[in-house]
Amino acid sequence: MSAPWIQIYASLPEHPKTYALAAALHLQQYAAVGLLVSLWSWAANNALDGDLTHFPDRAITRACGVTKNAARLIPALVEAGFVDQDERGRRLHDWQDYAGLLLIGEQQRRDKHREKMRRLRATENKQLPPCAASVPVTKTAQGGHSDGTVTRCAIPTVPNPTGQDNTLHPQLTPAVSAALAGFARMRADKRRPLTPETTRLIVKRVQQLSAKEDIQIAILEQSTVNGWSDVYALNASKQQDKKAPPDHSPGSFEHEAVARMSRLRDDPTKGED
User: Which residues touch 21 (CB under 8 Å, ≥6 apart)?
Assistant: First the structure.
């Protein structure tokens, strides 16, 4: 925001009120003009509405830069007609004439800010999923009387993408939900946040690519690490890394193969049929 400014009329140095103020404070005419400009400039920053009621006398004298005859300053401003004072308080006289454009500009700035925030909220609301399943809910007040009927969305709320909430997808394990949360955070950092529909499609895609928990986690982590907006199947090397280790338990094929090789090393004739 640019610095506030006020209007100064060309007639101010020769105005009878300026002469009266200079005489009351025993000042040169140019000093009285500088005093008034200092007061109005201070008010533009601290009393935009021109109301001086809640400011102590010391604050006003310091704003005017007056050190001599400080006790006489405010009565002199009132007598000269630069400050209005009554039972309601004190205000700068005809402040609208000096700061009118400043007040208009400030109001326009506030209106522009409100409009900007309105458009921002409207944009955020457009990103929310439409409620395709609304149900009427009757609010009942005390005494059993109906307090009106409102429409409430029946779609469950979207889980926090930064947590491990899998309320929308209870079929996911906590570990897969954690990987999905990491993927969602990555998408949000790239300014492409997940919506409930895209989350559902991502989950469906992961489950189509693999039914194994460790593969599902690897798929999601692969996209997170590479910054991909979608999920893809693991390459062959990564799939091989995710295969279960050989089963060497007694009775398994691997166990019998190892035992046979051991017997052949001890007596090669035992391997002949």
Answer: 27, 32, 35, 36, 76, 77, 80, 82
Residue with tokens 């405010």: 74
pTM score > 0.85 for this model? no
User: pLDDT tens digit string along 126-169?
Assistant: 655 554 444 454 555 455 554 555 455 444 444 444 444 444 45
Tokens of 141: 């007040």
Structure tokens at 40: 């109005």
Find, among 37, 43, 45, 42, the residue nearest to 9 by Cα. Answer: 37
Torsion 37-39-42-46 (CA) sign? negative
CA 151 to chain centre: 28
